[in-house]
Amino acid sequence: PGFRFHPTDEELLTFYLHRKVEHKPLAIEVITQLDIYKFDPWELPASSTGCGEQASYFFCPRDRKYRNSSRPNRVTSGGFWKATGTDRVVHSAKPGHKCIGLKKSLVFYKGRAARPVKTDWMMHEFRM
């Protein structure tokens, strides 16, 4: 016996992220609060409240690249996370199917922007 944490995109947004933003308690703490950009991706799974899955989940505030800019800073000590494609809208399964948030896919590149090396590390960022 054990427990498996495999939430849908809707569950991540409505139950976990929404409650976190509203400062409401969660029944159990399955998602760790961590500044993921202080780590390279291969260092992260050990820091997660993992449940034996390939995926890890973290709450992380978005830092800005520049003080008066809306551009996020996604640089780590060994590389950077680069957005791929466009943001995807996450809809509610309830009647009306309203937009409840956005999902962005990112890929990790080793090195700096001048000579990046693409890796197989992928991250999905959810925001409301």
Automatic annotation (TrEMBL):
Whether DNA damage counts among this entry's keywords is no
The family database entries (Gene3D superfamilies) matched by this protein are listed as: NAC domain
| Domain named NAC: residues | 1-128
A Gene Ontology BP annotation from the UniProt entry: regulation of DNA-templated transcription
Any GO MF annotation of the entry: DNA binding
Q: Which domain of life is it from?
A: Eukaryota
Alphabetized, the UniProt keywords read:
Nucleus, Transcription, Transcription regulation
Statement: the UniProt record of this protein carries the keyword Lipid metabolism? no
Protein name, UniProt field: NAC domain-containing protein
Q: Which organism is it from?
A: Selaginella moellendorffii
